[in-house]
Write a structure and sequence with these properties.
With 236 residues, the chain is of the alpha+beta class. Helices cover 53% and strands 14% of the residues. The chain starts with 15 loop residues before the first helix and ends with a helix.
Length: 236
């Protein structure tokens, strides 16, 4: 039976082996490392780049490079377009010059074909004039006159095949573009400004006047009440 001093306690009858095992377990646990999760906040070091910022900067740099390349490509395209435009304009001018040259050459060729023998025709016309004067003199030999007329007609037919055409101005109003006035005669028999006599016929080579008609032109009789000058006397 327990003493009074042990009142309120508990029996301590524990084997010594159990106590030894408990102490050994505690010591062993004390020697084992503890796995404790510790959150450590690493302070940011000044000057260290932010990865996100570095990524944005890389994207911006790439965009800038692409933009620069695009602008350079556009500039090259503008230069090439300008060169093509200048070359196109040059080719157009060359084509226009060539076309104008062809037209000018065609006109010159036509001019040569139509009027290249103008000088020769002018040399032949006095021969035709001589034949006409011979006929106007009316030689007594009708056979000779017939031969002269045939020669004149043959020569005029040959000239006409080359575009030579004669015209008569007698009785027509004087036209300084077609007629050359050798003299003027005052007469009341005809109106002033008319061709009253023709010394030489005029001639065209196609549409070009190569010789004007040599004519005598009438003018009004000077003064009132004066006698009209006879045409023959005035002409003489």
């Amino acid at each position: 039976m327990a003493h009074d001093s042990d009142k309120g306690g508990f029996p301590a009858d524990i084997p010594e082996t159990a106590i030894a095992e408990a102490v050994a377990a505690v010591e062993k646990r004390a020697l084992e490392p503890c796995e404790v999760e510790v959150e450590v906040e690493v302070p940011a070091v000044a000057g260290t780049p932010d990865p996100a910022a570095l990524l944005d900067e890389g994207i911006d740099a790439e965009k800038g490079q692409l933009r620069l390349e695009l602008e350079m490509s556009q500039e090259r395209a503008r230069k090439v377009f300008e060169q093509l435009k200048q070359e196109h304009d040059r080719l157009l001018r060359t084509a226009a010059d060539l076309e104008n040259y062809k037209k000018r050459a065609a006109r010159e060729r036509d001019e040569i074909q139509r009027y290249g023998n103008e000088r020769l025709v002018k040399e032949i016309l006095p021969v035709l004039d001589s034949l006409e004067r011979a006929l106007a003199a009316r030689p007594g030999d009708e056979q000779l006159a017939s031969g002269v007329e045939m020669t004149r007609r043959l020569l005029e037919d040959v000239l006409s095949r080359f575009g030579v055409k004669g015209f008569s101005a007698k009785g027509q109003p004087f036209d300084p573009r077609l007629h050359e006035a050798l003299m003027v005669v005052a007469t009341a028999k005809v109106a002033p400004g008319l061709v009253i006599e023709e010394q030489q016929r005029g001639f065209f080579l196609h549409e070009r006047l190569i010789r004007p008609a040599a004519v005598v032109v009438s003018v009004a009789v000077p003064g009132e009440g004066e006698a009209a000058v006879p045409e023959k006397d005035a002409e003489s």
